[in-house]
Design the sequence.
């Protein structure tokens, strides 16, 4: 198709938004709210993931070795741990290092340690789990290694975090699906109204030889245009909402830092990503709504 | 050339709209198809514009079997014919110029071509001076002339006019038929005009096909009273 005729169809689609103003506005509003919630959910998930990864980064398992473990056994345990894909940052602590660390941590009582006849600290390994959800199975594997006395792992903390993350994903997913369905239904209804308002014109177009693409393109433009504008508006609102939440969390974070939270991601770092996601999601919702409506109501 | 071979149209309601129609209309002919209400004229028009396909039999236009056209081929076929309707079927939001330009856009013509072609066809129907008017600002006769200009825009070899005088003043009806006859004579365009107005047909004469209860009951050439005048 010629560029001039494509331009004509695009103009026709956009002008239909104004002609059909009330329905277009209703669609725009619903889509905007949906996309606002979608982008808020997206930002929440991004921040929760960041917090999770902060926590996972400090998530350690301590592996205490048996009292009389030989150097060969230590080497063997080290190589087994290093080969385990679920683990990272394998660090060995000798009895001497452990005692030194203990002495530093308990500086006030360090003199008491001088009265000990022998070093009571066990040799140990400190490892990190890549995926918190696998912590139990990883610990079970480690416990079966010859020479391992016991392990210490933050099971409860891990299970709480996994639960929080799963709950967020579940609720977020459900809300997202509901919003997508509602948005598509609303856009589809707007386009149906537009099709109805232009039914005579569509009939005439059929009789004078318009192809299906020629008839449907303006409706696609209309649906996608509403979607993109709603996406951009939702992005602006998201920015406002996020900025006010951001300022709340940028004052005193001492308490939050205990939970691995070091502040929200600045909106400026992700603004273009959020804009792109909003506009693409808006255009897609508009397009899907149009496909449903034109497929049902325009027979060429 | 238009050809119908052993065409029957049976609607699901049980009505036999057309029965065993055999018809041939050569290029450059001007044909009146007449008949009363419910005779089968509209069904014939629907067949010729490929809105329906025959239950049995075949319909050929310019050598194409219309039943075999699929999807966008139907659209392409419709662009090769011109349609004129009783109710004009103009887009009320568009002005006269835009109504004609519209079909050229559908045919994917360039803006430059459209700017040359539209004034030309509006001139043929003597409406160049009303190019910026909206259809509702025009009389019935003028609206039908816009519809004829639109039908002419793609320079079709065949124009099907379905009761083109049905909605206009009887005095103007003669002007419309005269305009169609001029187009037929000057450009050699085949014209099939469906009408129930016997006075009009008697006045102009020519090849007359009468349909009654779905069958062709008369197909011959008669002299018109205008030739006697």
Sequence:
């Amino acid at each position: 198709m010629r560029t001039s005729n494509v331009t004509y169809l695009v103009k026709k689609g956009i002008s239909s938004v104004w002609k059909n103003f009330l329905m277009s506005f209703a669609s725009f509003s619903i889509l905007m709210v949906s996309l606002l919630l979608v982008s808020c959910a997206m930002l929440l998930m991004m921040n929760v993931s960041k917090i999770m990864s902060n926590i996972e980064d400090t998530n350690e398992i301590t592996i205490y070795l048996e009292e009389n473990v030989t150097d060969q056994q230590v080497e063997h345990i080290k190589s087994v741990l290093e080969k385990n894909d679920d683990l990272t940052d394998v660090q060995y602590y000798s009895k001497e290092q452990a005692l030194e660390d203990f002495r530093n941590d308990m500086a006030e009582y360090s003199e008491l340690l001088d009265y000990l006849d022998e070093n009571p600290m066990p040799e140990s390994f400190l490892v990190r789990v890549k995926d918190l959800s696998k912590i139990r199975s990883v610990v079970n594997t480690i416990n079966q290694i010859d020479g391992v006395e016991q392990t210490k792992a933050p099971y409860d903390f891990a299970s709480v975090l996994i639960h929080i993350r799963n709950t967020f994903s579940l609720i977020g997913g459900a809300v997202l699906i509901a919003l997508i369905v509602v948005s598509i239904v609303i856009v589809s209804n707007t386009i149906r109204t537009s099709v109805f308002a232009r039914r005579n014109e569509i009939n005439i177009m059929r009789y004078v030889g318009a192809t299906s693409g020629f008839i449907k393109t303006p409706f696609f433009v209309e649906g996608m245009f509403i979607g993109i504008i709603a996406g951009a508006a939702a992005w602006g609102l998201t920015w406002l909402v996020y900025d006010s939440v951001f300022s709340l969390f940028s004052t005193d974070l001492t308490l939050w830092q205990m939970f691995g939270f070091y502040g929200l991601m600045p909106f400026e770092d992700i603004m273009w990503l959020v804009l792109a996601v909003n506009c693409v999601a808006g255009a897609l919702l508009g397009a899907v709504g149009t496909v449903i409506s034109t497929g049902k109501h325009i027979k060429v | 050339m238009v050809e119908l071979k052993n065409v029957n149209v049976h609607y699901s309601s049980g009505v036999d709209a057309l029965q065993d129609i055999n018809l041939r209309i050569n290029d450059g002919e001007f044909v009146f198809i007449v008949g009363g209400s419910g005779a089968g004229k509209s069904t014939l028009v629907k067949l010729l514009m490929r809105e329906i396909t025959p239950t049995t039999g075949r319909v050929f236009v310019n050598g194409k079997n219309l039943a075999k056209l699929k999807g966008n081929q139907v659209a392409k076929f419709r662009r090769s014919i011109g349609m004129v309707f009783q109710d004009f079927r103009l887009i009320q939001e568009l002005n006269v110029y835009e109504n004609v330009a519209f079909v050229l856009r559908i045919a994917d013509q360039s803006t430059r071509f459209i700017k040359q072609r539209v004034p030309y066809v509006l001139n043929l129907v003597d409406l160049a001076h009303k190019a910026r008017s909206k259809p509702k600002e025009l009389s019935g006769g003028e609206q039908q002339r816009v519809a004829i200009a639109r039908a002419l825009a793609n320079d079709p070899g065949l124009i099907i006019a379905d009761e083109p005088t049905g909605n206009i003043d009887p005095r103007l009806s003669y002007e419309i038929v005269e305009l169609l006859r001029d187009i037929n004579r000057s450009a050699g365009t085949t014209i099939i005009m469906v009408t129930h107005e016997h006075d009009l047909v008697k006045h102009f004469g020519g090849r007359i096909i009468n349909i009654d209860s779905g069958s062709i009951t008369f197909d011959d050439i008669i002299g018109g009273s205008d030739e006697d005048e």
User: Anything to note?
Assistant: Chain A has a mean pLDDT of 83. Chain A has two domains: 3-55+159-297, 60-153. Strands of chain A lie at 60-65, 87-93, 124-129, 148-152.
